[in-house]
Design goal:
The protein has about 220 residues and is mainly alpha-helical. The chain has two domains: about 60 residues, no CATH class; about 100 residues. The chain has seven helices and no strands. Helix 5 crosses helix 6 and helix 5 packs antiparallel against helix 7. About 10% of the residues have low confidence.
């Protein structure tokens, strides 16, 4: 671009083109770089997430050496770089802990312990369901896992498909939550059906008792 006053237009492209993308670990394979590249940016708004990810990508991220002071509780509880408040204060005020603006926060990935806990919950709830509800849940998983217009025929049995999909649920945390909600709804409907069946059984038993008494009375009068 010319330094001439008012000349802001340029016909030629820039002289040095970026032919290769920047790699922050090309010449630096230290533990610090590996740690920074492995940071999962979560519980912040979309804009702040993009800013922090840009800093990580282009080697501008500087982690905290010691916890910093929160602007709300004024305690040294901020453990993430570029954040201005701690997690509890941000959650209490429903704001982003980095920019302090009210916006939708991006949740983080579940930890290994949370994944194992959810896996066991799924297994226990699935075993507690009756066969009909279990097959309904398996069909629900098959519908969620396949695109529209896909062929539903498979050589595997439904139980095998259920076990395989329960193992693959760990890679999709949101789908796991949907599966848990579906299982809970099936369990609730099953409990309601049991209560209705018990009520119907009681009504039938009362009707039978009345019929027996009526027959006895008729036989006495005869």
């Amino acid at each position: 671009m010319s330094s001439q006053k008012g000349n802001a237009a340029r016909s030629r492209p820039q002289k040095y083109q970026n032919r290769h993308a920047f790699k922050n670990n090309l010449h630096d394979t230290s533990h610090k770089t590996k740690f920074i590249n492995g940071i999962d940016v979560a519980n912040v708004c979309e804009r702040c997430k993009q800013i922090i990810e840009w800093k990580i990508k282009y080697k501008k991220y500087k982690p905290l050496k010691a916890p910093s002071k929160c602007v709300k509780c004024e305690q040294k509880t901020v453990k993430h770089a570029y954040h201005i408040m701690c997690g509890p204060c941000a959650k209490k005020n429903e704001v982003c802990p980095k920019c302090g603006i009210k916006s939708e926060l991006i949740p983080g990935k579940p930890t290994v312990q949370e994944q194992l806990k959810l896996d066991t919950e799924l297994q226990v709830m699935l075993k507690a369901l009756p066969e009909r509800k279990r097959r309904t849940f398996i069909r629900y998983m098959n519908r969620k896992g396949k695109p529209q217009g896909a062929n539903n025929e498979s050589s595997k049995s439904e139980e095998g498909m259920a076990e395989e999909q329960l193992e693959n649920v760990a890679e999709q945390p949101r789908t796991r939550e949907e599966l848990l909600e579906k299982l809970k709804s099936l369990k609730l409907s099953n409990n309601e059906e049991d209560e209705m069946s018990d009520f119907e059984d009681e009504e039938l038993s009362l009707e039978d008792d009345l019929m027996i008494k009526k027959k006895k009375n008729d036989s006495i009068f005869k």
